[in-house]
Amino acid sequence: MPKIIQKEIISERLHKLRDKMKTGSIDMVILSNTDYHNSEYSSEYFKDREYFSGFTGSAGTLLVTKDNAYLFTDGRYFVQAELQLSNGEIKLMKSGTKDVPSISGFVSECAHKSDHVYRVAFDGRTVSASFGEKLSKTGNVEIEDTFYAGDYIWQSREKQTFNDIFSLDVKYTGEDTESKLNRIRKYMSDIGAGIHIVTSLDDISWILNLRGRDIAYTPLFFSYLIITDKKCTAYVNKSSLSDNAKISLKDKVEFAEYADFYKDIKSVVSGNDTVLADKNKINYSLFKILSDSGCKVVYRMNPSTKFKSIKNNTEIENLKKIHIEDGVCVAKLMFHLKRLAKNKETLTETDAAAFIDGLRSEISDYVELSFPTISAAGPNAAQMHYAADEENQSTLKEGEMLLVDSGGHYLRGTTDITRTFAYGECDEEMKKHFTLVLKGMLALSDAVFLKGCSGYSLDILAREPMWKEGIDYRSGTGHGVGYMTNVHEGPNAFRWRYIPGVSEYSELLPGMVTTDEPGIYLEGEYGIRIENELLCVNRESNEYGDFLEFETLTHAPIDLDLIDTELLSEREKELINNYHNDVFRELAPFMEGDDLNMLKKYTKAIK
Amino acid sequence: MPKIIQKEIISERLHKLRDKMKTGSIDMVILSNTDYHNSEYSSEYFKDREYFSGFTGSAGTLLVTKDNAYLFTDGRYFVQAELQLSNGEIKLMKSGTKDVPSISGFVSECAHKSDHVYRVAFDGRTVSASFGEKLSKTGNVEIEDTFYAGDYIWQSREKQTFNDIFSLDVKYTGEDTESKLNRIRKYMSDIGAGIHIVTSLDDISWILNLRGRDIAYTPLFFSYLIITDKKCTAYVNKSSLSDNAKISLKDKVEFAEYADFYKDIKSVVSGNDTVLADKNKINYSLFKILSDSGCKVVYRMNPSTKFKSIKNNTEIENLKKIHIEDGVCVAKLMFHLKRLAKNKETLTETDAAAFIDGLRSEISDYVELSFPTISAAGPNAAQMHYAADEENQSTLKEGEMLLVDSGGHYLRGTTDITRTFAYGECDEEMKKHFTLVLKGMLALSDAVFLKGCSGYSLDILAREPMWKEGIDYRSGTGHGVGYMTNVHEGPNAFRWRYIPGVSEYSELLPGMVTTDEPGIYLEGEYGIRIENELLCVNRESNEYGDFLEFETLTHAPIDLDLIDTELLSEREKELINNYHNDVFRELAPFMEGDDLNMLKKYTKAIK
Questions:
Q1: Of A183, A397, B390, B471, which one's alpha carbon is 20 to 30 angstroms from that of B523?
Q2: Looking at the complex, does the CB of residue A294 fall below 8 Å from at least one CB of chain B?
Q3: What ipTM was predicted for this assembly?
Q4: How many other C-beta atoms lie within 10 A of the C-beta of residue B502?
Q5: Within a 10 A sphere around the Cβ of A310, how many other Cβ atoms?
Q6: pTM exceeds 0.95, yes or no
């Protein structure tokens, strides 16, 4: 059961908010949990929407008007939101269902009905540039983007936390900041931009070869960056800078106070400048400052976003090593589960998660988990974003499967792996579905393609075995993975549906790392996902162009107990056998005793 | 050997052109073979570029300046252009090769070097809106879009030809013009457009259920169409209208003279109107008239383009029937060739083409070929656009293959089919490559996919068997096919590389017909292509969405003599056997004697 906040508490918070709205003649306030950098995970300081609504899901937006309040969230959270909003103060708006408008459409409707100019307020630093721009262009709407609801009412809020910032050695990054800045300045010069503003924390961390701990599951730090031809200025909480961070960037980067960014930027940018910025990453406040300055803004993807998606040789060598040690943890969990099943001993979802989290934490250069471990037994695994907790969780039953999706951040890189294990003997339908997922995963990993292909061109290879059975998995097939930054990090991805003007588009290039994670999710029954990370590599170049292929980074056994070999082609058997052969070779040095026996058993060639 | 025009003749034509340029203070003239409707095939009247350059290829643009002349063409025509331009008057510009700029880039360079405003002239009716607009925005360029080089100098030119326009009965079209206009007007109303201008001949023919014979291999007629809420005016050569054409559209469509369109349109459109037009289809002259009128133009794909790509039930039933009779012709050519090979008798490329063209012309509702039959023996088939002629052609040799790509327009629809046949015993490598092509063709035809997929999502299914061998076929996998309009007709297609902002994008929908034609082309050795037409159909709808699949329209044997069964999976054998089973069932009623025996032999199940 998710935590439910008393009706009286929510009522009081909303009451105070509406008083404040009245003072400023505000008709609607928009609240989210987003930080100033549009980070995927949010730290406590930014959880305005959660504070005012009681809804704790990772995605959702709260709209408060004089008389009503509306919480927009998507299908993953309908059940949870219904519970957490059950006190009746706030109406649930099920995004994506019939008759529910988009947020901007809803604002437009409200403004249309209003007999005066409709004043919409939010903290522009927590709203994306594109969304804010869209609202600002809506008929009869006036925007107030400096409405700080948390500051006004959430008195108990802790300050924004700033943790130590440390340098990542070149033996991990493979390229120093000077070289990275040179490449960025070359790009700026090519497009005629004199100033480049970076606000996305992954880009900044990559450029500066620094890391922090300001956001859960994301070893980044709050910061802004301004790059010009001659200067590079990083806005950070200066007192958080460790000595090695300062030394590593001496004479290359100037540091300024994080809190001064919005004040400073107004004097940095003038009407004569050409500024490069990424409209998908900057927030609306900055967008407005740039628009008001009269400067020319070239909106393009940050060059560092593409640069960092192409891992260099040092990063690749590190990744290969850490994926083996990370795979050892997954294999050990698998063997632990198999032993328990054999002995009819029980295993709970949180026990399984604690087991693997504990193993990861023992790896020498472990930093933190790359996301909260998903450990889902039986029907729970049909929920793609299931989160077990101590009070509310399942114990594995004989004949059920356990889905474990987990990963870590290490100095040697970031991992993300999913395995689905049989606890006892599973039925034929489970095995059939597991085998279909495996066929899809293998087909994509076996792809050969010309340079110029995007993930949209390849996605169907993973999906076709499921589609032929009339099943879809309602999610992308895979996402890019950062190096000690974010576990979800583009621009590369595997998706089936491209929507012109909406979807991002990026070609696959050697050095990119993308997950390959098809699945089958049957509500009320079970969920299956098999996820490996694929490194894009060169295969051959000839008169037809440059052919690329994938090398699998992830090394952990795929549960042979769940494979129906009758459904596999000869090529598929060859692929799984070659993979398990590699897994044995790489993992065996880290195994002993019964684990080593189990590794042998679970990497045995199938016929 | 292509026809070469004497140097003196070309010199004289260019000399006269330059005199005319001098009179109008023109710095550069741009000449193409394009008609006013951007049709794929051009009629003689429009071949300005051919007249002034001597180059007869289907793609190419001639730029004439005071002192020089440049012919831009693509890789398909480098050899031919080098021969035809060998007199030295005109410099060949190999588009797509290193250091050769785009045409607009070249114009920009010339304008940049000029010490006065650079005046560029062309017939704006033969230049696309987008290209003309781009030139008009080029620095230091002034456009003169009413420069009619052909009228001025090409005195011997015949008049634009207008042939009979006839009505296509609703038993062929399945929907009358009133219903089509209703759908278009609904679309116009939805987007707030009061006037819709259509200039593409396929759209007009489809809307009016009329056909003509004004362009080779394309049963269309020169025309423009203006649709408003109340009125529909067709600009045609009125004396070409047959009685049945006039009767079929009585009280629904008004006819005006083709020659009056540009005069009339200026009075039809005013500053208060909202006009719907397709920027990819209208020419620059019309674009300029619309821009100058001050009206609001909504540039979108013509609604009829999408409507007509989705074949209705009547069209589908007709297509299924004609594809059987059309397939009979292909099968008979195959059996003819096999008998000749057995008896060591010879067959030339043009004999093979004449044989199949003759068979098609005997079909009851045959109208014309849908494109010039490609009949290419041995190494000639490696050229994708090979055209044999009586003087310059090959005779099949033992162990060679013959590639025949052909099709017809019939009242019951348009066909396009390619088969590659073994003449005698072919070697193992040929068989391997033929089998790879077959695997790709079958994989795409066997696809199951969710509604929302485009041809970009599916293309890799056809290409993967070749790509895994490091081979590509350097063309799209397939194109849409019209119904008694164009053999190449979008928006549907199978392509592997999507280029944002450049490529068209369209989802695959039930009723669309697209070719599936992978191939392997080895220069100097041989060429293989297998082409079937696929009809997109519903498969099942469930909680995941609407699943679609394909039904193969084309019915003709695929040469078993060239299949290496060792390379086929069980599923692939099942697919080819099912296909051949259908082919036998459908074609047998049209066969007798040895042809029937051969049909049995060449549709036999493989094990």
A1: B390
A2: no
A3: 0.92
A4: 7
A5: 14
A6: no
